[in-house]
């Protein structure tokens, strides 16, 4: 007697598994489980288990799409523990789109948790901040102004002494200590302002101010604009621009991310700029992928593609329109920590290094682990502080081995993470962390 096996239809029944199947199942099947991603994955290196690796997470997404495991019970935690550095995409020999799989899984997990009201208090606060604060530049500027006053009146010293923040959130207290000293808000460039090029005008660029950069690191924005002007660019601080949407996308809030993307496309189209420039690797990566984010909306697809084609990191334009007029010799060794999203998503590796090597007097030493994530991961270091610090401590050991006096980054999250690493690690060699723009501005005498 011949037994005929009935093939199981892998298309699931329930709403969330069905959506996960539609979004990612085909992509998960591209993974050949070869393991090339394992050596470059910081969470696998730290935890040493398969569910903390890219191929392990891909397999879990596939099983959840097939309804073999529960989305919330078995998938949510491994996905949440991923840094999203996407080094695995670069290492993958068959080009598995891990970033798409990860963001799709986060979107479905968030939708299911919201529907079942399983979002914890921390998650509700996070969603409130992302929907009511970050999309509004004026509100972010107000936060920055208040923090400047908080520092100027030395209230921060009292708060640190009494450990008020530490009682609420130990991780937040650590980062509060290492936030850079803010300059007066009166020096912040105004939205809509046009800064003329110094000398011959080579291009008109629309400047993306970002959220954290404009709220708490606007000195770097001001210096970025001055450097672009020195390089021959007319700079317009684009009106009506919004948050890039990266943090929303990373937290599974794709609807909100799409809305922000559309608002930015409209705003920057109006600027008449030849290029759209940013100085934050994470923001740049999100702007760089607007065409993928809006790929299924025909009325936006081509506009998004045009937007992406004009989007540049500041290092690219400073190399393209350089050399910069350096006025000071640099003292000591410089090393560089790649922003994961600048390197792995945008593919920008050499321009920052080229600029650092061009500074008179600087001795550049390559950091052997520069391609590995520092553990910042957007707000990962706040949500998963202990795991993040384990990754950071390894990174600082590598930095100290270079004998560098300056560690350079290209992303605000990375900069704060490096600041904390310096704070946590006593060193015989004085060490400071700076954004690439700060180093170049100092060498140019700005």
Automatic annotation (TrEMBL):
EC annotation from Swiss-Prot or TrEMBL: 1.1.99.14
Enzyme class: oxidoreductase
Domain 4Fe-4S ferredoxin-type: 21-51, 72-102
Record note on cofactor: Binds 2 [4Fe-4S] clusters.
Assigned keywords, A-Z: 4Fe-4S, Electron transport, Iron, Iron-sulfur, Metal-binding, Repeat, Transport
Gene Ontology MF annotations: 4 iron, 4 sulfur cluster binding; glycolate dehydrogenase activity; metal ion binding
Cofactor needs: [4Fe-4S] cluster
Record keyword Metal-binding present: yes
Alphabetized InterPro entries for the sequence: 4Fe4S_Fe-S-bd, 4Fe4S_Fe_S_CS, Cys_rich_dom, Glc_ox_4Fe-4S, Helical_ferredxn
Record-linked SUPFAM superfamilies: 4Fe-4S ferredoxins (SSF54862)
Catalyzed reactions per annotation: glycolate + A = glyoxylate + AH2; (R)-lactate + A = pyruvate + AH2
Function according to Swiss-Prot or TrEMBL: Component of a complex that catalyzes the oxidation of glycolate to glyoxylate.
Protein name, per record: Glycolate oxidase iron-sulfur subunit
């Amino acid at each position: 007697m011949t037994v005929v096996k009935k093939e199981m239809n892998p298309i699931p029944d329930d709403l969330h598994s069905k959506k996960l199947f539609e979004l990612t199942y085909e992509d998960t099947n591209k993974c050949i489980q070869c393991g090339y991603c394992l050596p470059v994955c910081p969470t696998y290196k730290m935890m040493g288990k398969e569910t903390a690796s890219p191929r392990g997470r891909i397999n879990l997404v596939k099983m959840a799409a097939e309804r073999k495991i529960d989305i919330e019970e078995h998938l949510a935690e491994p996905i949440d523990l991923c840094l999203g550095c996407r080094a695995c995409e670069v290492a993958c020999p068959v080009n598995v789109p891990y970033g798409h799989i990860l963001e799709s899984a986060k979107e479905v997990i968030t939708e299911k948790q919201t529907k079942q009201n399983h979002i914890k208090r921390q998650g509700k606060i996070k969603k409130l901040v992302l929907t009511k604060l970050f999309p509004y530049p004026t509100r972010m500027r107000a936060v920055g102004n208040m923090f400047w006053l908080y520092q100027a009146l030395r209230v921060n010293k009292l708060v640190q002494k009494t450990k008020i923040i530490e009682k609420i959130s130990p991780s937040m207290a650590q980062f509060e200590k290492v936030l850079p000293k803010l300059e007066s808000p009166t020096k912040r460039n105004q939205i809509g302002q046009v800064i003329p090029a110094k000398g011959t005008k080579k291009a008109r660029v629309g400047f993306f101010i970002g959220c954290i950069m404009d709220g708490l690191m606007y000195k770097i924005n001001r210096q970025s604009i001055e450097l672009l002007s020195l390089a021959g660019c007319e700079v317009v601080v684009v009106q009506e621009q919004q948050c890039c949407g990266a943090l929303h996308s990373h937290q599974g809030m794709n609807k909100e991310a799409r809305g922000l993307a559309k608002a930015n496309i409209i705003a920057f189209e109006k600027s008449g700029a030849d290029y759209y420039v940013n100085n934050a690797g994470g923001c740049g990566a999100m702007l760089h992928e607007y065409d993928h984010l809006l790929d299924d909306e025909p009325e936006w697809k081509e506009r998004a593609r045009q937007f992406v084609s004009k989007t540049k990191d500041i290092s690219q334009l400073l190399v393209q329109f350089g050399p910069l007029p350096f006025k000071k010799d640099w003292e000591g060794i410089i090393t560089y920590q790649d922003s994961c999203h600048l390197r792995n998503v945008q593919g920008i590796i050499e321009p920052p290094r080229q600029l650092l090597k061009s500074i008179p007097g600087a001795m550049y030493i390559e950091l052997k682990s520069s391609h590995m994530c520092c553990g910042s991961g957007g707000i990962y270091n706040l949500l998963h502080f202990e795991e993040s610090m384990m990754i950071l401590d390894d990174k600082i050991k590598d930095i100290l081995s270079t004998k560098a006096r300056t560690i350079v980054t290209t992303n605000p999250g990375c900069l704060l993470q490096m600041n904390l690493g310096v704070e946590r690690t006593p060193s015989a060699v004085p060490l400071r962390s700076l954004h690439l723009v700060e180093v170049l501005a100092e060498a140019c005498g700005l």
